[in-house]
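### Sample
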Amino acid sequence: MSVKIVALITSKSELSRDEFLRYWNVEHPQYVWKLPELERYVQNPAIEHRTEWAYDGMAELWFPSVAAVAQAFSSPEADAVREHEEEFIGNITWFLASESEIVPV
């Protein structure tokens, strides 16, 4: 069974939305895709709205197992991911999750 990381992200306060999205959408994937055993990576930027959201976006990273997550994030590739995140992420809160699709009955 696959597991995924769900990461809730806020931008550094000194960055504009466009600057944040450039770091995250354009630059960051090249670091993330180097993580060992990463199966899928999805970014969910918050939609601009009259309401100020608590988060600027959410990322989802799928791995084959919890052990694979641990291995990936103890790798040198993860060090590069974290180093790049320091340039544009103000705060990140994450958890491991399993995914259950709910269909109408």
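Strands lie at 3-11, 40-45, 57-63, 89-97. This sample (EthD family reductase) is used throughout the tutorial notebook.
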